[in-house]
Design brief:
alpha+beta; two-stranded antiparallel ribbon
């Protein structure tokens, strides 16, 4: 089975601990420890509407 994927709308990069801090709202989406490429507003929207 072949599965096609497209380009990501947003990519968030950083150390695992910093990604976890962002996902749990301990640091802001625009924190300099994170690199956001693409649609940064999408990442912010996702953070605001997803709870762990």
């Amino acid at each position: 089975m072949s599965e096609e994927t497209g380009d990501a709308d947003v990519v968030v990069e950083g150390r695992a601990v910093d990604l976890l801090l962002a996902l749990t709202a301990r640091i802001a989406a625009d924190d300099p420890r994170l690199t956001v490429s693409g649609d940064a507003a999408l990442f912010t929207h996702w953070l605001e509407h997803t709870r762990f």
